[in-house]
Amino acid sequence: MKIRGSQTKRWVISIVAGAVASTLAIAPSQAIPVRSEVGVSATEIVLGMQLPQTGPASPGYNKIDDAMRAYFDFVNSKGGVNGRKIKLVVKDDTYKAGLTISTASTLINKDKVFAMVGSVGTQTHISIIKDINRRGIPDLFVNSGYSGFYIDPKKYPTSFAALGTYVVESKIEAEYLKANYAKELAAGKVGVLYQTDDFGRNVLAGFKQQGVTFPPANTQKFVAGSQALGLTRQVQALQAAGVTLVVIAAVANATAITIGTAAKLGFAPKWLVTSVGSDATTFKTILASQGTSGAVASALLTGVISASHAPSPGEDTDEFVIAFKKINDDFNVGPDKTWDNNVLQGMNIGYLTTAALQGAGKDLTRKGLIAFMEGKGATLSSAALSPLSYSSKTHEAYNSFWIGAYDANSVLKPIGGTRVLYTTDSAAGPITVSTYKRPAIAADALPKVG
Amino acid sequence: MDKYKNIWRKNLIKTLTLGVFLFLLSFTFEPYNQGQLALVLMLFIGVLSLTVLTGASGQISLGQGALMAVGGYSSASLITHLGASIWIGFLVAFFATAIFGLILGTAAARVSGPYLAGTTLVIALALPSVANRFESVLGGDVGLIVDFGTPPTWISNLIEVGYEQWQLWVVLPVALTALFFISNLMATRAGRSWQAVRDDEIGAAVSGIPVARTKVIVFVVSSAIAGLGGALYGLRGLVGPSVYPVSLSLTLLTAAILGGVGSISGAFIGTLIVVFLPDLIDWAISGLAVSEQLSNYLPALLTGFLLLATIIINPAGVMGAGHRKKH
Known about the structure:
Oligomer: heterodimer
Distance between the termini of chain A: 78 Å
CATH class of the largest domain in chain A: Alpha Beta
Largest interface: A-B, 47 and 40 residues
Structural class of chain B: mainly alpha
Number of strands of chain A: 14
Strand content of chain B: under 5%
Strand order of the largest sheet of chain B: 1-2
Order of helices and strands of chain A: HEHEHEHHEEHHEHEHHEHEHHEHHHEEEE
Strand content of chain A: 5-15%
Number of helices of chain A: 16
Low-confidence stretches of chain A: 1-5, 20-34
Radius of gyration of chain B: 20 Å
CATH superfamily of the largest domain in chain A: Response regulator
Shape of chain A: globular
Structural class of chain A: alpha/beta
Largest sheet of chain A: 9 strands, mixed
Low-confidence stretches of chain B: none
């Protein structure tokens, strides 16, 4: 027993001695704090991003980071922003909020990013937004249209959207349905399939705001994290309910699988798809992985209604599309750089981020960047055909959408041939026609701020 | 009695010393490592629950993560819906998961080996469905947003405490309590009767140990400890199905095997390995041009390799060799 007792004592003494020694050893380095902004040096700005690079929800969205990095590399090739090169550190959260917490912690505490940019996903971002904001880290151009992130800047002062909110988009789509599918609405022939998170609920809220509700029999839902690949039951239920138009509020893979499954079941309603789930290339890629040929997938997409705040990636004469396509060709080193809406969106976020960093000035600080976004963010131009809404009262991005349908070449074209942008807010505001005229892109494809 | 008192005193000294060591360490670490250390302690509690279940009584669980989820949801529901403090949440998590363990253990006592592993695995797989069935209370697929909060003003007035450091300070006393509790329990008559059941059920029964009841009691204790770990684990930001996936259960099992099933210090070492291995890999490949796609998978790949190597070369784990020598 004595031997054991002395062993315990030695164990205790060695542990305490080790701890005290390590505390003393490190203490001097903490005594001389160096005041500089995290993630910013004389030559570099480190930005962080998380998105599903792998997993069921990744198709399409996993190209956004490569496009952003391509634009940053293009900017770096021109000397960077105020002499600083932009470095983008990306983490794969596989669209699982549990993992997002870990990847965010790594980006913040290990990679020591100056700001987060372009992070993808509503239900993933919801798990970390409070923490990011509490630390005062700029959370720019979040790839989620969930209005709850942006409409109350007191709640999330550092988060700014990259998309129009789902409420704004849905309000405009609801008005389109009321004007063009009144009979179907009155007869209870319009259904909805939505994912059970704030994305899906936000879409329903937008429709409800404009007086469009869906009968219970016509309402189907699914769990985005685990059920997105098996939606047969939901599609059969909508078919059995006899609906002739279905609104889909879902991520890209669930959207494609829903339409593909319906085709196999001989169910061919009119589809109205939320913009974030409607990219043509992603749609075809997902259906191809399910054994559907490109020609059949194109035919299924033809006539699908969607909305957008930007030009369609298939608009070859649009000056932003031309410039971004060239940058994508020259600088994108990702595994799949096929030009599509995701690449356009990634390029646009790269462009906006560069503009915001320019605007925040040479003495780059987190507070300075957020102050710029609130004060002058709304004056930034981008590839979008809608103005930005950033202010101290809201951190929403685009407030205008146009309604289109996919043609036989899988290009989203304005319904009726003429593009009309409708504008509204995420509350009870009216829907009006937008008169915004997008500023031209500079010849060198770099934003000009100040 | 003197013998137990002596063990109790030694365990108290060891636990307090470890606590002081980790507390002092929290001042020297950068926020990232403070967070990692807090994560080690959270998972360590989960691995401890396996040490009790598998190490002491020989029952195999592939669903320990689900028991952590029960603790996480119990605590988060209370915090979110009733505004309870996290400390009340821990207590409720402990007892709620104990009750859950009692129900599960009663059923589990009838099966053993792979059947028990399968039963517990089903519980883990069923979790998302339960969360979605009671969406208004459990938050569905997204879950419930909870966190460690900020230190009380009497602490923040005294000293500047970062978020990760505060996390570590909250986790530390809970982990130490669990460690002290389990260390003593394993040395008591109850703990020895569990080991008797593990080694030879018939022999234990002949010696007057009620085998079925003992198994249930172990399940209850193990569940309560797992629930406590789960409550802490959820406070990292979210309690939801994606926080407690099946892979969490497998991570706990991996840590237990790497460290040595049944060994408390092995549980700690195993947890250190699974938490810090990705950082070690990052460091090792930092100068190499490895694609993101590959580097993201490397930790899981290497952990799997380590697990296989441990099972083949040294099934008793890191601390197993020491144990064998002692005995």
